[in-house]
Design brief:
alpha/beta
């Protein structure tokens, strides 16, 4: 059972244990106990035994329980258990949820009163608690992240779970539907050993309900501000990394950036080596203690223009050029040729940026090449192996490289000039329309990295 604190998991467990052939052993992987509060052993496993081999406890739990054996798992339980359980098709998954505001307030009251279960109404302890906006937002974020991880795990393994809400635990028909899902007999009646705590409306449970109202107005409950991202995930591109042979500097290039310029600067440290595999790169790292890795971002307008000239006008990507012309009706000159004037070049560049927007959104059949992929996606790809220590900006490149050289105890050589493209320069065509097209195509990068308008 995947659940959280104060979602009704105790009550659902009690009803599960009333079903014939079902035993739920509690929070078996709670960091502080095994199964139940203050319990430190289960099936001969101590806390230390469980820490040493949590999956062995699952195997023992299955072997020594008649019928179906299970447990409750919360987002902060032993993370080593989650993936094997999600991947196990013989393990039925129950996902219990509750309105996160209700679970948050219930948790605050339980912490205040130290009453976590209620078996008799005469023993009820209650309290008004203070709503903390930052704490609540963190609570919601943790719950959402866990639910997304569960959904993804089920999707990629082609499984489904039985979803049940807090309010459904007292619905006998729903619980008997759960029994059918588990393949066991149903219930004649509900377990009544536990009672609902604090049934009052939320505002009555809070000292500062007005703060709750303000905090909720800030939350984007339906995630309306999210920008859908259909750009494919990128690999880390380790073979393209460049490292100095002597100084401990590792460059993680972003295509379309000042790659030739930075590579020339690295070569001044006694030469560079590349064509790494992940194994050989780790060997380089071990051989260069104190190393620093870095990448360089370029303004999206300049990077887009570099891709337009270097990959499209140059004729490098013939098949993609052909699709641009035939399907998307872009006006392109012959391969290797420039437009006749700056106005035509500007129009062609804007058309390219409009095509890039479609390409990054998955609306073209052409691949998303690294020359025009978003820089955010490329850095996320790096992180699949290792993110860079430092992210530099092209407009402060000399300062950034001097800092890196000092970090590894070297004096920074002069930065060579960036080779010029044999096409109309960006400064001759840039205007507000070009900037708008770039912002439309690379909205993700503008937001992620705070780019302002391009300055010649």
């Amino acid at each position: 059972m995947f659940a959280e604190m104060r979602t009704g998991s105790n009550l659902l467990e009690a009803n599960l244990n009333s079903m014939p052939g079902v035993t739920c052993h509690g929070e078996v992987f709670n960091p502080h106990f095994i199964g139940k509060k203050d319990q430190t052993s289960l099936f001969g496993f101590s806390l230390a035994d469980r820490e040493a081999d949590p999956l062995a406890l699952i195997r023992t739990l299955r072997a020594q329980t008649d019928g179906l054996a299970g447990f409750r798992y919360f987002h902060d339980h032993d993370a080593r258990v989650l993936q094997p359980v999600l991947e196990d098709r013989l393990c039925a998954k129950i996902i219990l949820t509750r309105n996160p505001l209700e679970s948050y307030v219930s948790l605050k009251i339980a912490q205040e009163t130290n009453q976590w279960k209620l078996t008799s109404a005469k023993n009820l302890k209650t309290a008004q608690v203070r709503f903390d906006a930052a704490e609540f937002e963190a609570h919601v974020a943790a719950l959402q992240a866990f639910q997304m991880a569960l959904m993804h795990g089920l999707q990629v393994t082609g499984q489904t779970a039985f979803y049940i809400d807090y309010d459904d635990i007292n619905d006998l028909d729903v619980l008997n539907g759960l029994a059918a899902f588990l393949g066991v007999g149903g219930l004649a009646s509900l377990d009544d050993s536990l009672k609902k705590q604090n049934p009052e409306e939320i505002a009555q449970k809070l000292i500062n309900p007005e703060e709750m109202a303000r905090a909720l107005s800030r939350l984007d409950r339906f995630n309306l501000s999210r920008t859908p991202n259909f750009e494919p995930r990128r690999p880390p591109m380790v073979p393209q990394f460049l490292a100095t042979r002597q100084a401990g500097l590792l460059y993680m290039p972003v295509k379309g950036g000042p790659v030739a310029q930075v590579s020339g600067w690295l070569a001044e440290f006694g030469g560079v080596e590349g064509d790494f595999s992940q194994k050989t790169l780790r060997q380089w790292k071990r051989a260069h203690p104190g190393h620093r890795s870095f990448t360089v971002l370029r303004h999206p307008v300049a990077r887009g223009h570099d891709a337009f000239c270097g990959a499209i006008l140059s004729g490098q990507f013939a098949a993609i050029r052909e699709q641009m012309v035939k399907v998307h009706k872009l006006d392109l000159p012959a391969p290797g040729k420039d437009y006749l004037d700056a106005a035509a070049h500007r129009a062609g560049f804007i058309g390219f940026l409009q095509w890039v927007k479609l390409n990054l959104s998955g609306q073209t059949s052409a691949r998303v090449d690294a020359h025009w992929a978003s820089q955010a996606a490329i850095l996320q790809g790096f992180a699949a192996f290792q993110g860079p220590d430092v992210v530099l900006r092209e407009d402060r490149l000399s300062d950034g490289l001097a800092f890196l050289a000092a970090e590894v105890g070297q004096t920074a050589p002069a930065l060579p000039s960036d080779p010029a493209q044999p096409f109309t320069p960006l400064g001759a065509v840039y205007d507000a329309q070009v900037e708008a097209a770039s912002r439309d195509a690379y909205a993700r990068d503008y937001v992620a990295f705070g780019f302002t308008d391009w300055r010649p």
